Amino acid sequence: MRCKSTSILFALALGALAWPSVASAVTFVQTSDDCDPLCGTTANNKIDVTADGSNTKISVSLASGWGFVNTGASGTGGALTFGLTVPTTLTFTTVSGGTPAQWTNTTPGGFQVQGGSGVLPTSSQTASSTLAAAPGKFSFTNGFAILCNGSGASGLCGGTLTFELNVTLATFLAELANSNGSPFFADVINNNRTGAPTGIIDFTQAVPLPPAALLFGTALVGLGVLGRRRRKVLAEV
């Protein structure tokens, strides 16, 4: 029985090494602060990128007291900016229950896609990638900028933003570009600090332990337990 159990655990371990890790969700967290004065850095500023069938859902959540702004600090970027490695046209749609409930270029506190056509949520917005850059901070040749319809450092756009893209998660992650080491940048305000500083922050992928590594680790633990039991039995003989 022990030999059979050992064989099973070895098979699990080998299978774990050969089993590719298929991501269904990736989280990006704030890792830099280019505000002047500083806005601060917190892991509570995060972006969850998840698969939703053949689409990719992006949910941005800023910490309490933080908000998106449109200060001009992002140059040709926006309140949220990302880029891909190749010229691309994407369709943006809102997610039911997402915030804000409406993206528009006329309603204060709303959002629109730079160069996009159509008004959400009554219709989707389709936009082609273009240069999106903030001097000295980021530059995406094939960038997408989501604009906050606020006035300066008004903070009218709140701290959450959820939308979907008509591209699979695997393709999106494979094409996601890095500018200065980060694929997402946001123009924000931190109302928790004196003077409510504004500026650019970036988000870098948080790397979880792959499922294959977890399975492999479990197999190794099991092998260790069986090894101790076997040594104990042999010592008692």
Explained architecture:
There is one protein chain. With 237 residues, the chain is an alpha+beta fold. It has two domains: 1-21 and 210-237; 23-209, no CATH class. 21% of the residues lie in helices and 35% in strands. The protein is built from three helices and 13 strands; from the N terminus they run αβββββββββββαββα. It has helices at residues 2-18, 169-175, 211-236, and strands at residues 25-33, 46-52, 55-61, 66-68, 80-84, 89-94, 111-113, 125-128, 130-134, 138-148, 160-165, 184-190, 198-206. Strands 1, 2, 3, 4, 5, 6, 7, 8, 9, 10, 11, 12 and 13 form a 13-stranded antiparallel sheet that branches.
Q: Strands, helices and their partners?
A:
Elements: H1 2-18, E1 25-33, E2 46-52, E3 55-61, E4 66-68, E5 80-84, E6 89-94, E7 111-113, E8 125-128, E9 130-134, E10 138-148, E11 160-165, H2 169-175, E12 184-190, E13 198-206, H3 211-236
Antiparallel strand pairs: 1-2, 1-13, 2-3, 3-11, 4-12, 5-10, 5-12, 6-8, 6-11, 7-10, 9-10, 12-13
Helix pairs in contact: 1-3
Biggest sheet details = 13 strands, antiparallel
The oligomeric state of the chains shown is single chain
Overall average pLDDT: 80
Number of strands: 13
Query: Can you give the helix content as a percent range?
Result: 10-25%
Q: State the secondary-structure class.
A: alpha+beta
C-alpha-based Rg, rounded: 23 Å
The run of helices and strands is HEEEEEEEEEEEHEEH
Low-confidence stretches: 8-21, 212-221
What proportion strand? Answer: 25-35%
- Whole-number total of structural domains: 2
Taking the alpha carbons of the first and last residues, their distance comes to 18 Å
Globally, the shape reads: globular
Number of distinct helices: 3
